[in-house]
Amino acid sequence: MNIAIVGTGYVGLVSGTCFAEVGFDVTCVDIDEKKIDDLRHGIIPIYEPRLDEMVKKNVEAGRLHFSTSLADVIDDVEVVFSAVGTPPDEDGSADLKYVLSVAKTFGENIRKYTILVTKSTVPVGTAAKVKEAVQTALD
Ligand SMILES: NC(=O)c1ccc[n+]([C@@H]2O[C@H](COP(=O)([O-])OP(=O)(O)OC[C@H]3O[C@@H](n4cnc5c(N)ncnc54)[C@H](O)[C@@H]3O)[C@@H](O)[C@H]2O)c1
User: Fold this and answer.
1) Is the CB of 59 under 6 A from ligand 1?
2) Residue 55 above 90 pLDDT?
């Protein structure tokens, strides 16, 4: 199965690398061009024990890829995990703008049955907002 992980931070990079380690074909996507360029050159932006060797091993095995564009990879995946940040909003609640931006891009670009999984930490009710953002982009 082919998977895209959107948001290549602590959660996205670790999850994507572990999915690749167990045999899935994974593309980690991020809008941060420097981060993706660094990862393509084997530079890991965070520290987790053994993460660097696991990234290297799975890149070399052809199971782990990096991209700055979900639109470029969405036709080739069955599942998209959204692992973007949810920083505190002005009132302390989770700011969902990155989560909803991914939902919009997803809706604008899917051309076949594709599952969107929200892996970011989000409040109850977010799934309905994500669904609405996808539906609006599809219409
Ligand atoms: N770090 C943890 O240990 C941890 C644990 C549990 C839950 N979480 C939750 O997981 C989510 C992600 O946390 P994190 O620590 O990995 O965040 P992070 O800030 O390390 O990474 C988020 C990444 O998303 C990217 N991004 C933002 N908008 C994007 C877009 N539209 N398309 C592609 N990439 C985009 C950013 O450039 C960044 O690299 C948050 O909701 C957080 O609360 C984190």
Assistant:
1) no
2) yes
Beta carbon of 30 within 6 Å of any ligand 1 atom: yes
In the chain, where does DSSP find H-type helix?
A: 10-21, 33-40, 51-60, 70-73, 97-109, 126-138
Where do the domains of the chain lie, and which CATH numbers do they carry?
A: 1-139 (3.40.50.720)
Give the per-residue pLDDT at 139. Answer: 84
**Taking a C-beta distance cutoff of 8 angstroms, is the pair 26, 64 a contact?**
yes
Q: Is the CB of 133 under 6 A from ligand 1?
A: no
CA dist., res. 4 & res. 67, Å (int):
9
User: Pocket of ligand 1, candidates 5, 6, 10, 27: which has the most ligand atoms within 8 Å of its Cβ, to mutate?
Assistant: 10
Per-residue confidence band for 93, with pLDDT thresholds at 50, 70 and 90 = confident
Distance of CA 137 from the midpoint of ligand 1 (Å): 23
Q: What is the Å distance from ligand 1's center to 11 Cα?
A: 6
